[in-house]
Amino acid sequence: MPTSVRPSACPGLLRIVPALDGGICRVKLPGGVLRSAQARAIAEAARQHASGVLELTNRSNLQIRGVLPGQESTLIDALLGAGLGPRVASADDVRNLLLSPAAGLDPQAKMDVRPLANQLLDLLQDTPALHALSPKFALQLDGGEALAIREHPHDLWLAAEDEQHLLLGLAGCPVDAPLARIEATQVVELVRKILLLFLELATPEQSRMRQLLAQIPASELLQRLQTRLDFPLQPVPANWQPASTISRSPAGIYPQAQSGLCMVAAGAQLGRLHAEQLLALAELSEHHGDGELRLTPWQGVLLGNVPESASRELLAAQGELGLLTHIDEPLLGLVACTGSAACARGLADSKHHALHLAELLRESGVRPQVHLSACPRSCASARVQPYTLLASTPDHYQLYQRTPEAPGFGRLLAPAMTIDEAGAWFARQHPAGTPDA
Description:
The chain has helices at 36-49, 72-81, 114-126, 187-201, 209-213, 218-226, 275-288, 311-320, 350-364, 419-429, and strands at residues 17-19, 22-27, 33-35, 53-56, 62-67, 97-98, 139-142, 156-160, 165-170, 180-183, 252-255, 261-267, 272-274, 292-295, 300-307, 334-336, 370-373, 387-391, 397-401, 411-417. The chain is α+β, with helices and mostly antiparallel strands. A hairpin with a 5-residue loop joins strand 18 and strand 19. The chain is globular, with a radius of gyration of 21 Å.
């Protein structure tokens, strides 16, 4: 397969981009699923051709950091040999489809969306016109699972109403206010037509759906779409309510729809694993589960189809590997970008500061959800967290709180504070034993 793809600042499997700690290679995983043999291939490639450091992304993908100079082609060939690439080079960027890591397993789900997800991924890869979409343009397919993120700002999302119907939403459309209802059998054609319509209407500067909707109202876009469809866009039922979801990063043992089986989830410390940890997880998935690792949008790992009798042993083994297995662990509530240690745009060493903040939170007993961002680009968190610490100097952060009225990170609470001051502020605002934000 040719390894040249269109220019972009976003890393891909075939496009390794430079950073201060070496090259970054991003591997997009269908439905966030990584087979154990593929996990071993990634780990071995990361050890031989890179730093051995792996990052889990907020789209349930995986990045290899520290790719060594001159090793790019060898690394790419190893990943392609493990079946981790697209069928054609130009399709690598557009394989952006987020599912719940519990798709097909979650007892709350209204639909097993995995077969439909495979059809949509085939559509994205096999339609050359769609390869013009931005590498950031993304779709979400929501089966109604409890283990899901519904705030992720996707350009197009589909939520299961029941086993035969889904509801359509576009960027900026609240999850409780979808725009139309369709039959499950109509989804692939709907997505094809709406993506082609987007590419037809959007200017080169409008790479995301929200940018087009700022010029063309969603109602008008749907009217134009309807003229191209052979089936009607149905009205949304008046009593529609999105399925409930967890409020924090999952960790621990969760019930599964299939009798006698369960799911075991754990977080990666600030979204990072080492190659040896991934190798060990691959072995655990084969020994206790079904040989699959499901990466999560909370930057963690879920193993499914685990016999209930083996779940505690598996959870303990993940903890021994250094994964976060206790739901009250403060690091589960913290998101941090690469920071100045590896990114030229970073003003502060956000990962180091996040570890220090976790120590302070552990002492005070409070568990806020905080995003530490070393620059305004917010790479590490696609959704706005309840609190954001935005670096203003190498040692100071602006503190924001998300509010419905304020755009971006939300309302500015403090113009400059150190991590020690931030830890003390959270301790005052959220005394131990009170609900976190």
